[in-house]
Design a protein that fits this description.
The chain is an alpha+beta fold and 323 residues long. It has four domains: 78 residues, Helix Hairpins, CATH 1.10.287; 81 residues, HSP40/DNAj peptide-binding domain (Sandwich), CATH 2.60.260.20; 78 residues, HSP40/DNAj peptide-binding domain (Sandwich); 35 residues, no CATH class. The protein has ten helices and eleven strands. The N and C termini lie far apart (121 Å). About 10% of the residues have low confidence.
């Protein structure tokens, strides 16, 4: 296929000045960039054609040769040979920076630069932190533009697989090397840092590798003893035995029922704190029974309260006696 006239490609007259050429090039490069036309297979060819035309016409010597000999001036390795697309990509780096929003991120030295690091916050449940998981995330980031050989970067969404080990805590950072922003002009890519945020749990509170929960029990169960089942973080359940005379606030330790320690074979414990619930909305008969129970009670029935009020009486007696 015969090459089109470079002036025709850039849609300018032969008398166009440098500023007009540059404006035309920027407009067409933006319009025909392949990433802006993913469904148009011809856009890459058109994009390269625009770049090649501008590379020749922006150079006074090459333009003069082209005006005199046309495309023949650059065939067979002639003095104005344009070369392949990758040969001219560096000549457009300043313009592509302006086009795609990367201006000011580098000096004018034209050297390779490392891409920026990226941060992504991922929320996971306590159960996922316990078991670990492989999560799929979609990250919008700048990647190397293949059409212009990395002289201008483009934004794309990438799907990444993240391995979350068992035992991670809130704020744990996972580094994915080379998954950050693409470097400039062939420079290395930055890193991606995944910061984990653990969502609150309806039953457990976490302290390091240990788990804590509060369970209400009836006054009768606390007095007479009994047992109850509680869920565990692994999805199962376990039975807690309550001895006779259990007081509100007592904690029971379930060894090895907590969280795994990150990158260790150790496991934390689970602590169950019982809270004795005072009965409410009593019937007449229930009131009568409780009143009878109170009449039958003694110091042995309520040793703590008996001891406390005994000390209070003793203290008041001393305070009221003459000095």
């Amino acid at each position: 296929m015969a090459k089109r006239c470079y002036y025709e490609v850039l849609e300018v007259e032969r008398t166009a000045g440098d500023a007009e050429l540059k404006t035309a090039f920027r407009k067409l490069a933006m319009q025909w960039h392949p990433d802006r036309n993913p469904s148009d297979k011809s856009s890459e060819h058109r994009f390269k054609e625009i770049n090649e035309a501008y590379e020749i016409l922006k150079d006074p010597d090459k333009r003069a040769a082209y005006d005199r000999f046309g495309h023949a001036a650059f065939e067979h390795g002639g003095p104005g040979h344009a070369g392949g697309f990758t040969d001219v990509a560096s000549a457009f780096s300043d313009i592509f920076d302006d086009l795609f929003g990367m201006g000011g991120r580098r000096g004018r030295g034209g050297g390779r630069e490392r891409g920026a690091d990226l941060r992504y916050t991922m929320e996971i449940s306590l159960e996922e932190a316990y078991a670990g998981k492989t999560a799929q995330v979609r990250i919008p980031t700048s990647v190397t533009c293949e059409a212009c050989s990395g002289s201008g970067r483009v934004t794309r969404e990438r799907a990444l697989s993240v391995n979350i080990p068992a035992g991670v805590e809130d704020g744990t950072r996972i580094r994915l090397a080379g998954e950050g922003e693409a470097g400039v002009r062939g420079g290395p890519a930055g890193d991606l840092y995944i910061f984990l945020s653990l969502s609150s749990h309806p039953f457990f509170q976490r302290e390091g590798a240990d788990l804590h929960c509060r369970v209400p029990i009836s006054m009768v169960a606390a007095a007479l003893g009994g047992d109850f089942e509680v869920p565990t973080i692994n999805g199962g359940n376990t039975r807690v035995k309550v001895p006779e005379g259990t007081q509100s606030g007592r904690r029971f330790r379930l060894q090895g029922k907590g969280m795994p320690v990150l990158r260790s074979k150790q496991t934390g414990d689970m602590y169950v704190q019982v809270v004795v619930e005072t009965p409410q909305k009593l019937t007449k008969r229930q009131r009568e029974l409780l009143a009878e129970f109170e009449r039958l009670s003694s110091k042995d029935t309520h040793p703590e309260s008996a001891g406390f009020f005994g000390k209070v009486k003793e203290f008041l007696g001393r305070a009221g006696s003459p000095g």
